[in-house]
Amino acid sequence: MEEILVPIKRKRVVLTLEQKLEVIKLKDEGKSFYDIASRFNIGISTIKDLLKKRSQINEAVQKNKVFGFSRKTLREGSRPDVESLLYQWVCQQLDQDEIITNNMLLTKATEITRDLKQEEWKPSNGWLSKFKQRYNLTAVKEEFVSANSFIFEESYKEESEEDMTEELKPESIELYNYAIEPPQISPLEAADRLLDYVTAHDFPLKEIITLRMIRDRIIEMHEPKLE
Predict the structure, then answer these.
(1) Residue 126: strand pairing partners
(2) pLDDT tens digit string along 97-131?
(3) What positions does the domain HTH CENPB-type occupy (predicted)?
(4) pTM exceeding the 0.85 threshold for the entire prediction
(5) Which is it for the CA torsion 220, 222, 223, 227, positive or negative?
(6) Under CATH, what is the fold of the domain 12-68?
(7) Taking Cα atoms as reference points, which of 26, 15, 35, 38 lies closest to residue 137?
(8) In contact, 19 and 71? CB cutoff 8 Å
């Protein structure tokens, strides 16, 4: 049975001031939320918060002169140029809700190598496994995902310790009450929190995918227009 890629749940990440500034710069340059979130292991809500605080971040960077500090970057593989282009292709496919299989990745990597006119190289399953680890991609069996419903995980909002240890009582949870909070919460934040909850508590994959599709639709409707 062929496999379809899905991302690994991300751990809490603390960005340096320099990284925060780079996140803002990448979004200003037109990079997608998917790309930035995966690159820095952060959630969509974190990116939006940084965009709102751009003035404070710029001021802090200038005041503290943090550019000399080391920063975290993705560990490069043996073929960084191939991996970079392959990951761009992956993001493009996921933005269009396309399914991506392991065989498709191997084939595309071979095509990219040929286009770059590099020495003959055939991507192996071992290389593919490491590539997916570097970009936080894993796999599930195709039988669990319909042909047009694959959605790239973009919400990595961290839960509090209380949320993580809270005993799950499905019978006491009302979906509507969990999603709706006081007026100050945005539709996207509500969708993010709901998706975090059902993902953390192992709800059926079909229901998680449905929530991801709803959340993506909200992003399309409310994505900030940067000048």
Answers:
(1) none
(2) 777 888 889 999 999 988 888 777 788 888 888 88
(3) 70-141
(4) no
(5) positive
(6) Arc Repressor Mutant, subunit A (1.10.10)
(7) 38
(8) yes
